[in-house]
Amino acid sequence: MVSTYFFKARQSTTSSRPVLSRVPLFAAASVETAPQQLAWPIALPAATSLLKRCMDIVGALVGLLMVAVAIVPIAIAIQLDSPGSILFSQTRYGYRGQPFRMWKFRSMIADADAQKHSVKNEAKGLIFKNEADPRVTRVGRFLRRTSLDELPQFWNVLTGSMSLVGTRPPVLNEVTQYQPHHWQRLAIKPGMTGYWQTSGRSCIKDFEEIMDMDMAYQAQWSLWLDFKIIFKTVAVVLSSKGAC
């Protein structure tokens, strides 16, 4: 059996940043084991909190009102810049590896997925990033810089496949390469924002660094922490800080 770990945060004596230590969590028969077949441990508080779910529902309803106001001008801008669908959907993997359909406003050309192989990956590990991705449209760059492309994900939050705060939801070609300990990041619902988005956003290009942030969030989770991350997200988006 291959041991899988969760990361327990402890305070460093030399830095304000949490230090993570590995603690055995569960065992998987192999890296290729389907996530639904893994021996998942007892659900974490961040995954079961009723108050967190209530906050998600209220936040999603407010967010969908924003979508209702913004969808017409955004749709017109997308169509004028790059004909095609207004919305973009993609299969992502969420809580305990369950697949779901994630929604965004389209920020790339219509056949972006078919051209992905021609774009250099500037990130390290199981993520894909390119600061000057030629597939991103002019309007798309604005939508990404302001995070307006993420607004349709409030629907994902309302339906329960995502949370306001959580981990970044991975795609299929990422989870098929996961090492056993990577599955722990999916022990909670994916979120519209999280430590990664408020600590550099797209400028962080090392998957293991993102992984450490996800584990720190799980270890430190509280409802107050979610509020702080949401408030910080708003400040980060308004300042365009870290929008590489």
TrEMBL record:
InterPro entries the UniProt entry points to: Bact_transf (IPR003362)
Pfam families: Bac_transf
Annotated GO MF terms: phosphotransferase activity, for other substituted phosphate groups
Domain of life: Bacteria
Transmembrane domains' residue ranges: 57-80
Annotated Bacterial sugar transferase domain residues: 52-238
Keywords annotated in UniProt: Membrane, Transferase, Transmembrane, Transmembrane helix
UniProt record similarity statement: Belongs to the bacterial sugar transferase family.
PANTHER family listed in its UniProt record: COLANIC BIOSYNTHESIS UDP-GLUCOSE LIPID CARRIER TRANSFERASE (PTHR30576), SLL5057 PROTEIN (PTHR30576:SF10)
Protein name, per record: UDP-phosphate galactose phosphotransferase
